[in-house]
Amino acid sequence: MAARVKCPTCGKTVVWDGSSPHRPFCSERCKTTDLGAWAAERYRIAGAPLDQAEELPPSEEPRGGATH
């Protein structure tokens, strides 16, 4: 028997098996809505904020004397 879960977006019951191509979401619409929420930064992962300098890797200077 396949497990049943709630769609994280709308709460509709979804069967968790191969017949549900959008699982854990009930539809493409709910899947896209969730992705949009991440893109709009409405979701957050707990933790202390990073300084801007810590978020971006330091730029690397070209090495060697290669010419083109």
What does this structure look like?
With 68 residues, the protein is an alpha+beta fold. It has a domain of 43 residues: Erythroid Transcription Factor GATA-1, subunit A (Erythroid Transcription Factor GATA-1, Chain A). It is 24% helix and 12% strand. The protein has 2 helices and 2 strands; from the N terminus they run ββαα. It has a two-stranded antiparallel sheet with strand order 1-2.
Keywords:
68 residues, Erythroid Transcription Factor GATA-1, Chain A, elongated, alpha+beta
Order of helices and strands: EEHH
Class derived from helix and strand content: alpha+beta
Give average pLDDT, whole number.
Answer: 82
- The total of helices stands at 2
Largest beta sheet, briefly? Answer: 2 strands, antiparallel
Biggest sheet strand line-up: 1-2
The backbone outline, from C-alpha atoms, is elongated
- By CATH, the architecture of the domain at 3-45 is named 2-Layer Sandwich
List the helices and strands and how they pair.
Elements: E1 3-6, E2 13-16, H1 28-39, H2 52-55
Antiparallel strand pairs: 1-2
Produce a short descriptive summary:
The chain has 68 residues and is an alpha+beta fold. Helices cover 24% and strands 12% of the residues.
